[in-house]
Design goal:
Elements lengths: L1 E7 L2 E8 L8 H5 L8
Antiparallel strand pairs: 1-2
Length: 39
Amino acid sequence: MVSFIRVENDLIVEMDEYLADDVLASEWRRKIKIGKPIY
């Protein structure tokens, strides 16, 4: 996994994570409906 974090005024305001594997997202991510596939 690779994470890109954007910080403003010493606070995290945005974070993008990318998985190297082409697999189904983990159950907890699907349950709270975060993330989206990129093609």
